[in-house]
Amino acid sequence: MKNMSISIIEFSTENFKIFKKKVTFSMLSRKSKHTFICNDRNLLRTSLIYGPNASGKSSLFQALTILRHVIINSANNTENSELPYHPFILSNSTTQPSFYEVVFSLNKRTFRYNFSVLKKEIVKENLFEILLNENEKKCLIRNKQDIKLFGDFKKSEDIKQKVRKETLFLSAASQWNDSLAMDIVDAFKDINVISGPESEQYRGYTIKMFEKSEKNKKKILDFLRKADFCIKDGSIEEMELPDFVKQQLPSNLKEVPDKVTTIYFSHDKFNSKNENIGIEKINIGNESIGTQKFFNILGPIVDTIEKGKVLLIDEFDNSLHPYLTKLILDLFENNNVKNSQLVVTTHDTSLLTYKEFSKEQIWFTEKDKFGAGSLFSLAEFDLRNDTEYSKKYLEGKFGALPFIESL
Questions:
Q1: Please, which residues bridge with residue 105 across strands?
Q2: Element (H, E) at 126
Q3: Fewest Cβ atoms closer than 10 Å to its Cβ: which of 188, 297, 318, 329?
Q4: Distance (Å, rounded) from C-alpha 218 to C-alpha 216?
Q5: Alpha carbons 197 and 320: distance in angstroms, whole number
Q6: Which residues touch 386 (CB under 8 Å, ≥6 apart)?
Q7: Spatial distance between the Cα atoms of 44 and 31, rounded to a whole number of angstroms
Q8: How far apart are CA 393 and CA 403, in angstroms?
Q9: How far apart are CA 184 and CA 174, in angstroms?
Q10: Do 120 and 165 meet the contact criterion of CB atoms below 8 Å apart?
């Protein structure tokens, strides 16, 4: 199968959860050491999003997750099934469709794709190819069930009759073997969103990578050692499942396993005179929370960098030391030959103290007194080159801070 490399240029949403008005996040930037050239555009490798709790950081990632899910899976929707419709609920916009749009590069081509949904139907769906002169060439124009096809899609006219109101044309055309639709849908599988607080669900993926590839095992161990966890080696082994864990498993589980596959890390063992007396194997469950969190997300991180994918991490700094978050960002900034992209939400203001980050890399979310969220970039502020971003942010110069009354 042909490897289709995708890069995110912009993502927008409107009337989705906290976002009443249209907000747009962009990885476009002026040329710098943080960018790579993709179809004559300078795109960022990494970007950070700050803001108080409940200001829209997670909602932005959820919107992109929904866009990805509907593109990949809506062809499987049954008749009259509900679409993921989550409008801004603090006004009368609950009768209006939610809007999602992504501008992306796919190998040598650039596209703008959007759709609008209500609970029971796709209202609009459009795909345009953006040419090098920035003019747009139509590929797909849809108003409800009125679907017009152009260019690459003209050969798939017969598919129009098979597209239900709950299904994106792009998703359906992919299942009916339209080559452009298949390429786009496959490429969106390489955009992944993970949650820092829920990192344990990615542990199995990292363990599989560790077990199946000596190359990946070495990389994961190297990263753990760089993080100074005193880890010498690691091995995949089976362990007896403790009784207290069995008791916590769902009651409807048909078979409760006696053993599970897990990872043990080897540490040097010392006597009272600090003399090395051998190796002690420690189950990952007995390592520190920080070690566990870091290991859990290393699988998706290594996979993203190796295969030129796009990764978004929500609550990036959850249980991770600031040096570890900086280490991960440095991997994407400096060891990223396939131009993978990393976007994170974070409260870690220590990252703002690093002078090498550019204004274009830093974004903020903020909620107004009417409960509506906004999204803006640090590049919108006129700042001197020697400005301490962290200090100014904590002073409230950029907004995007919680208002906390004294008790």
A1: 7, 110
A2: strand 122-130
A3: 318
A4: 5
A5: 11
A6: none
A7: 9
A8: 14
A9: 8
A10: yes
Asked whether 29 and 9 are in contact (CB, 8 A), the reply is no
Per-residue pLDDT of the chain (407 residues; tens, 9 = 90+): 345 689 999 999 999 999 999 999 999 999 999 999 999 999 999 999 999 998 999 999 999 999 999 999 999 998 889 999 999 988 776 789 999 999 999 989 999 999 999 999 999 999 999 998 899 999 999 999 999 999 999 999 999 999 999 999 999 999 999 999 999 999 999 999 999 889 899 999 999 999 999 999 999 999 999 887 889 999 999 888 777 666 666 766 667 777 778 999 999 999 898 989 999 999 998 998 889 999 999 999 999 999 999 999 999 998 788 889 999 999 999 989 999 999 999 999 999 888 789 999 999 999 999 999 999 999 999 887 778 888 888 888 888 776 545 44
Local structure of 252: helix, strand or coil = coil
Token pair 């124009």 is found at: 141
CA distance 267 to 303: 26
Taking the mean position of all CA atoms in its chain, how far away is CA 162? Answer: 32
- Two tokens, residue 305: 């960098």
Domains in the chain and their CATH numbers?
A: 1-190+308-407 (3.40.50), 201-296 (no CATH)
Minimal CA–CA distance to 95: which of 116, 115, 114, 118? 118
Place of tokens 């960098």: 305
Q: 144: helix, coil or strand?
A: coil
Residue 285 to residue 292: CA distance in whole angstroms: 7
CA–CA separation, 300 and 313 (whole Å): 10
Give the DSSP per-residue string, 59-92: HHHHHHHHHHHHHHHGGGPPTTPPP------SSG
Type of residue at 279 = I
Packing angle, helices 179-188 and 57-73, rounded to 10: 140
The one-letter amino acid at 99:
F
245: left (phi over 0), alpha (psi -120 to 50) or beta: alpha
Strand partners, 403: none
Using left for φ > 0, alpha for ψ between -120 and 50, and beta otherwise, residue 134 falls in: left
b/e string for 349-381 if b means 16 or more Cβ within 10 A?
A: eebbeeeebbbbbbbbbbbeeeebbbbbbbbee
Q: Reduced to 3 DSSP states, what percent helix, strand and coil does the chain have, rounded to the nearest 5?
A: 35, 30, 35
